[in-house]
Prior knowledge:
Layout: E1 3-5, H1 6-9, E2 26-28, E3 30-31, E4 42-43, H2 57-62, E5 67-71, E6 83-86, H3 89-103, E7 107-112, H4 117-128, E8 134-136, H5 146-152, E9 160-164, H6 172-180, E10 184-187, H7 195-198, H8 201-208, E11 220-224, H9 228-235, E12 242-246, E13 256-262, E14 265-270, E15 277-279, H10 284-299, H11 307-312, E16 322-325, E17 331-335, H12 341-353, E18 359-365, H13 374-384, E19 392-396, H14 400-411, E20 416-419, H15 422-430, E21 437-442, H16 450-456
Helix pairs in contact: 3-5, 4-10, 12-13, 13-14, 15-16
Amino acid sequence: MIKRSVMELINMIDVQNDCASFADTLITGVSFNTRTIEKGNLFIPLKGETRDGHEFVQLAFNQGAAVSLWQRDVPNPPKNVPLLIVEDTLVAMQQLAQSYRKELSLKVVAVTGSNGKTTTKDMLAELLSLKYKVQKTSGNFNNHLGLPLTILGLEDDTEVAVLEMGMNHFGEIDLLTNIANPDAAVITNIGDAHLQELGSREGIAKAKMEILNGLKSNGLFVFPGEEPLITNALKNIPNNWKVRTFGKHDSNDVYPTSLKMTESGSVFEINESNDIFQMPVLGEYNVMNALAAMLVASEWGVPFEQMNKAFANLKLTTMRMEMSDGINGSHVLNDAYNASPTSMKAVIELVSSLEGYTKKIVVLGDMLELGPNEAEYHLEIGSYLNPETIDLVYTYGELGKLIAKAAEENFGSARVFAFENKNELISHLKSHLVNNALVVVKASRGMKLEEVVQSITE
């Protein structure tokens, strides 16, 4: 983590007061939360919607902070404590992260995409750890607060940082990529998440392509080669990056030559290697995520023949394709972290392809932030469900009822159950869980369907 004297800090950010009396004070790490602050930290008080972090500056010092930032327009700063007065504490934190990143002799991989960015981040970290000391974004710390905090937590001897970049609006990834200044950039896909804010898939592609604004000259750009919104946009961007593509077909630099799902995960081969790859993660779309990660790792000197070692140790961030034992001998696949029409269809395809289960049940909840066409998207998901490969359909939420409505046309009302009360859904679902049944749970994060998972797992 960052370890700098105050004198060094004032050369990294715009400080507006005289710090000569404590110029030699050393800070170790940063925090903007007094509940997790550690001795020697630089405390960064941030203004939130309901609370102002400046209210807790004195408490931060009481708990061991060495120095604190203070925003110039906030009155009544505490006296007799070392403060760095700045124009804006959030901007100062971002500026500090940007400066610190430039001082570190490491490589940065930036990952974004409508779906799969966290999974790809996790895969990248495992693969690159075969050769380098790697740190990665913790959880989903992928925004204007989390990314700077991740960078400021990097150790001096870290060789590769894998940073996830999320967004809801135009300009967000532009900010993040210019802080991180990546050596490699990965776009996993262009889906339909955040249509409410970005308007169209073209808008989503434009926002994701902002990741290139901070990519170093001669850097590596990895993306799905079958996505015309990226390939067409790239034609109009002057660059000297190394461009590599992944996808399903042989038009890409890396593509699968065979692929199958087993009880324990995915097994696949690729055109660039004679090895058979196995990873404990289900889904063709996760194989695509793996191909993106493998491309970066290969370009950075990790041999394909070593990659199975990393896949064997792969642990994904929670609620992303987590398989657990359920009650009555059932199996529960938890993919309840988030959902969009693209990712929902991918999970439905996965469930349909899996064999060997006595019963297959999907529990689907509302997909949020889809804009004015949200009803149409939910009806489309209901129609996408196949009664020949799925036995029962459960839905949760107001929009989930539209999934159920469309599904009933193919399944009939006896196999489709719509709920707006989660406890009632859980009670009804439990009555259908038998030995070797498979339950897949998918919804937007706001629906909190992990509560269903918790209720039906052992």
